[in-house]
Request: fold
Amino acid sequence: MKQLLRKKDKDYYWALLAILPVLIFFIFFLLYPQIINLRYSITNYDGFSKDFKIIGLSNFARFFKGIDPKGIVSFRNTLTFSFFSLLFGIPLQMVLALTFYNGVKGNAFFKGLFYVPSVISLVIISVAWNNILQYRGLLNRLLEMVELAPFDWLGSPKTAMGCFIFINAWQFTGYGTIIYLAGLSSIPEEILESASMDGAVGLKKYFYITLPLMMHSITIGLFMGLTGSLQMFILPFILTGGGPLNSTITFAMNIYNNAFIMQRFGYAAALSIIFTLFIGVVTIFQMRFTRKREVSY
Amino acid sequence: MTRAKIIKSIGIYIFLGLLSLIIILPILHIVLSAFKTNAEIARMTIFPGSLYLKNFKTVFDNPYTLFAFFNSMILVVSSLFLIVIITSLASYGLSRRKEKVFSVLYVVFLMAMIIPAVSSMVPLYKLISSLSLMDTRLSLILIYTTSGIPMGILLYTSFTKTVPVSLDEAAMIEGCSYLTRFYQIIFPLLRPITASLIIMRLPAIWNDFMMPLLFIRDQWKKPITLVVYAFSWEHQQDFGAIFALLVMAMIPPIVFFMIGQRNIYKAIAAGAVKS
Reply:
């Protein structure tokens, strides 16, 4: 027995040693980069020259005081994109989840079909949608067939962001549906049955009984949706370059442009820190909000 | 069936049918256009006049594009291998030991989930170039491995907790070392969760565009996403060839999805349901 205990102590060091590879990756490629961000965020570093100096918090001021003409705009665009993607996406996904939960013939077929866009790379999706939405594209061709006027969907500041929101909601319809379907399926049937017997039916039953009981899946769905959409980069990068009139430039794209095109490496580092903090606050707030509404049974 | 029920189910099918159309139309458009001549594409005919295959020949004639599939495969296989090996081993200790240091590390690893990839692109560019790893596939493998840590730790730690400790104790009495104990006894039992992890991470690595955009310049090292992007710039007049490449690039993830469909749903559900 004593020998076994000694062995357990040795285990302690073995366990630490076994964590080391993960820890090394973690420190080197995740933690250290954030330290690099902190270091450059207070400089006017351009990305390559050796003489740069510390300029205090001016990079942060550049963003918050609106000196960067694209800073606040890109932030607002990102919020718009995220908000409306989720606003249109989640209710649709929930209705679909409910439809599948109640069971229709061809359940598996529709589920599979709706899921397909989410496994395809956004680069492919962007190139494809570009061909559909451009002025001489498929959509306008279809509109002409029913004698409607063609429109420059991606070239107009009024509709370009709308297109992105649509594409994003379109891509993740199936993915979200699977999450909420899992949430629905995890509710014990007896609870739903007894709720029906107590007179809860239709929408009332859904909002007061079903929804709170599947809140955990909503926490996950919102988390995935938020962290994904707030980081949107590929759609504007490939489809519009952020235009027209900056109407589709996102925060991620502004970071990229500043770092790799305009050689404002220090400022891009500051933007990255602002972005990390922002995402952190949003997700913590969101988790608290939905977690509080999770009920157990 | 009552009349109301019949009307309701017709309504449901109309809803699902319309939605299917919206979902599938863009994908169908890619596939159909890949078999059209450029004249047909310019005229925006809905269906190709005949099964025109020259677009695919254009793609096959470009050696980089085919090599890109190989590159993407290398990235996926090596990153997933590393993720599985290091996070499963780390999670064994994290789930078994009761000391504080392990629970602290566990939380720290999970918190990494909220650090957005976008915030890392600027410093990673600096780091990768100072390590002289620019223009290497290794740079991407290291980054993808790191990005798999939070999910790997989360899945493996919670699953290892369900493996009875008596198995460890039996092995300990047998005199097995820590590593043999893990690899011979515990790791084989984790197979379902290894499958889930691979299923969840594979598309993310295969489809990533931002990191290769930053780090890969060499034509021969570009993964498929970057080649699709470059190809669609270089062949702006040859839409047929672009569509052919899109079709080819879509096939691997779609096939993977069709094979693993059930397990994919299960893996997503595992995250969405409180255990």
